[in-house]
Amino acid sequence: MKEFLTGSLFFGVVLTLVAYEIGLLLKKKFKLAILNPLLLAAVIIIGVLLVLDIDYETYSEGAQYISYFLTPATVSLAIPLYRQLDLLKKYPVAILGSVAVGVLTAMVSIFLMSLLFGLNHQQYMTLLPKSITTAIGIGVSEKMGGIVTLTVVAISVTGITGNIMAETVLKWFKITNPIAKGLAIGTSAHALGTTKAMEIGEIEGAMSSLSIVVAGVLTVLAVSVFANFL
Amino acid sequence: MKYIKQLLIILLVSFIAEAMEYFIPLPVAASVYGLILMLLGLMTHIIPLEKVEGTADYLVGIMALMFVPPTVGIMATVDELKQMGVALVVISAVTTLIIMVVTGKVAQFILNKKKKSEGGNGS
User: Fold this and answer.
1) What is the rounded end-to-end Cα distance, in angstroms, of chain B?
2) Whether B20 contacts B33, CB under 8 Å
3) How do residues A74-103 score in pLDDT, each as one tens digit?
């Protein structure tokens, strides 16, 4: 049985889709923010793999084809962006200004917390690009000498946190303007936050997608400066 | 057939973006080039919206699913994780909320200011 699964091309994909569907079902049924389909799917898959004693590489052999679409999907974010282009032309200062401040906040807060936890340079570089979308974050981490796999995990933790907490946090801090909401979500929690922003509304979603690009580019620049601090 | 053609356009843009990442000596990922290219294509009407719309919306809709395999990758990094797991989770989660609040507040502040100055013109 294990030999068959190890050689199977479709095992990883099927397991991922089934686990994700279960995640969606549970979320729909209980309507709790903590029941994030991605988080649930990952927990279910890790459980199944541990029980069947199958390692990550074997699972990944099939499952990687799902992540293959990450770049085309990021490219596709241009479409919701294009539909809201008038909005972007109307508020260039608010958009560029707030995302720039957001990226700077990311760098400073990660730097200070890394000091607090006594992290070394490599660990610090692993975390610096964690608020941007995976496709960009991986490149930055690799180039700056971080641990790429852990950067991916940090990016996922970031995205899940943003996705789960966005509505509550924005409400607490009375951030009610749809444009501000979208910018806040996209800058802090990249594409994964953007899926939540799209659930909230079309303007929120478009602003969030735009923030991914702006924050991604600004982070690439900022990281090369902040890399020297620790 | 329609969706195949749409997918083809999206993959073609991704492919050109991949080439740009390879040949342009900047630490910019293919997905950023691709997103910008696609946006420029739409703005100049070289790529008509209806030629990519359906497939693009579908891909964006299932984006969260694409993060599942990398997240499961956590099980392959147990050793490194033991060293910095707590720091990683705490720093990632806490800074996300800080960034969200600061960005949102700054954006709202600028937008309100703009609204006020526009409203003030009439009175």
Assistant:
1) 58
2) yes
3) 889 888 888 878 877 888 899 999 999 999
User: Which residue has 């789960």 as its token pair?
Assistant: A164
DSSP code at position A10: S
Give CA–CA dist A176/B71, Å, rounded.
Answer: 31
Decide: helix, strand or coil at residue B98: helix
Could A123 and B87 be called an inter-chain contact, meaning their C-beta atoms sit closer than 8 Å? Answer: yes
**With contacts defined as CB-CB under 8 Å, which chain A residues touch B111?**
91, 94, 177, 179-180
Q: What is the pLDDT of residues A126-144, one digit of tens each?
A: 999 988 877 678 778 877 8
Three-state SS for A176? coil
Domain range annotation of chain A: 2-68, 76-229
Of A101, A106, A156, the CB nearest to B71: A156
Number of neighbouring beta carbons within 10 Å of residue B92? 24
Partner-chain residue, chosen from A60, A78, A183, that has the shortest CB–CB distance to B104: A183
